Amino acid sequence: MTMLVCDISLHLSGFDLLRHISLEVKAGKVTAIVGPNGAGKSSLLKVLTGDMSPTKGDVYLNNRLLNQWPLLEKAQMLAVLPQHTLLNFPFTADEVVGLGRIPHQTGIAKDTQIIAEALELVDASYLQRRFYTQMSGGEKQRVQLARVLAQIWQPSRFGEQFLVLDEPTSAFDLSHQKLTLDIVRQLAQKGVGVVMVLHDLNLAARCADNLVVIDSGVIAAQGSPEEVLTEPLIDRVFGVKSIIAEHPITKRPLVIT
Amino acid sequence: MRHLSAGRLIAILVILLPVVALLSMTVGTVSISWMDTLHAVFGNSSNTQIDTILFEIRLPRILLAIFVGSVLATTGAVMQGLFRNPLADPSLIGVSSGASVGASLMIVTAGGFIQGGALVGLSLVSVGAFIGGFTATLLVYRLATSGVGTSVTTMLLAGIAIGALAGALNSLLSYFSDNDMLRQISLWQMGNLSGASWLKVTIMGLVAMLLMGLFPRDSKALNALLLGESEARHLGVNVQRVKRRLIVLTALGVGVSVAVAGLVGFVGLIMPHIIRLMIGPDHRWLIPASGLAGAILLVVADSLARVVVIPAELPTGILTAILGAPFFVALLLQQRKDV
């Protein structure tokens, strides 16, 4: 069971944002998307999650066209964390995470338990009764992460589950960056397919099973981090000279610039 | 920290509303004692004059205040959620300005026979206000809806544009009206419950029931919408359908309120805001609590309107603002202290 992007193109007000992109997101694997600013990473996520319809091509979720899933069933399988969420109303962290339980009918007791566990997982239990509007950027982003985790906390009877994250670590300090990647790995082990846009190539190399490099709306390379991260590619796509070394412990590629 | 749980606030309001309503029965140009009122209400009064005052004049007026107040406050809460803006109110979608033009047009053109002219018991002004309000909202909604859905931002801008146009039309109508019409127009715009009749109560009551029955269905969707439209969609909310349903219901509710009571300001904007400060933005509690509080505010305001300048009466809309504004300011100050 997968999320499948079949030869999609996206034209918007005269611009080709994406051209002939095909991508397979497997359940239980982590897919990282990297690329320079304006390469089309966010557009690809929007098409992948159904926020935008591609001009050409199709997107499938568990062997069914994405837009043909009933909204509620889709919401039980696919959770999306945007880069920024503008929430101006004084919900507590508890209540924000509780919004992730809207697609489910599991009852208040179960939901309360899941909310507490999700907050605990992202190291935000201490925020439980605090107002979202009074939190720091990193705290807000962690609460939002807990919300999408709560949304796919239990397996769905409709199919494999997927989590899409747009630059989840951008607001985080070192320890919370690591925490996020650990959570992502754990989810993958439980069978969730994770797609995330990352800026830091080394973070991507460390946690991705499949690394997709996007440049000017096309896929420049995709495969395992070892296959994809080469000095010529980084020069070609990012215009930066680099050295690829091996991480002494994880044995993953390490990009030094 | 919130000082009050939602359940407790709603319980307090549920108890307060009938007490306030009963109290309101006793006050007016003719003061009727508690005992006489209770006797009359429970059906063993011998005084027909008191019965007439209570059941033909005051009771419809109080019921109208309850229905109008709750409809204005709940639609206000819904609009603030839909627009993700705590300062939104139903007038944003053009319903008040449209209703104003409709009412003014009737006052100016129908002029002389305004008292006599009536459509199945409703004054022409009411009918004009309703048609004006509903038309303006549909226009704003149409302008903001394209193939990809309704844009809330465009709707806000279209609302401002239609509001400005309606304001100009209103000024134009005022410019061409005589002193008597001018007074009628400005009195109507202040909002008044003195024209209450059982017919108006029935219509308004049916509309209020309809809204109270249908709004709870969309409470969770409104909560999700506070995160943003795309986030709500990913939580399984059919955003376009929810938007259309809530806008039509709001236009209907506010349109009818304005038709029977004129422009009663403040309730729709501030009441949900006050409740949100007390129990938070969860629409499952916010909407019913706002409805109850709006009803109480309007009953109290209307009771005062009847007694402060005896034997004359003040327009209700003036009192809602005089009562609500200081309370709101006090809450803001308290919140500032808590931060």
UniProtKB/TrEMBL annotation, chain A:
The keyword Chloroplast appears for this protein: no
Domain of life assignment: Bacteria
SMART domains per the UniProt record, alphabetical: AAA
Keyword Nucleotide-binding attached: yes
Pfam families, per the entry: ABC_tran (PF00005)
Domain ABC transporter positions: 3-241
This protein's UniProt keywords: ATP-binding, Nucleotide-binding, Translocase, Transport
Stated family: Belongs to the ABC transporter superfamily.
PANTHER family noted in UniProt: HEMIN IMPORT ATP-BINDING PROTEIN HMUV
Function, in words: Part of the ABC transporter complex HmuTUV involved in hemin import. Responsible for energy coupling to the transport system.
Protein name: Hemin ABC transporter ATP-binding protein
UniProt source species: SAR92 bacterium BACL26 MAG-121220-bin70
UniProtKB/TrEMBL annotation, chain B:
Keyword Transport: yes
GO biological process, one term: siderophore-iron import into cell
Record's keyword terms, sorted: Cell membrane, Membrane, Transmembrane, Transmembrane helix, Transport
Localisation: Cell membrane
UniProt key word tRNA processing: no
Topology in the lipid bilayer: Multi-pass membrane protein
GO CC, alphabetical: plasma membrane
Pfam families: FecCD
Major localization listed first in the record, in broad terms: membrane
Family: Belongs to the binding-protein-dependent transport system permease family. FecCD subfamily.
Protein name stated in the entry: Iron ABC transporter permease
Protein's organism: SAR92 bacterium BACL26 MAG-121220-bin70
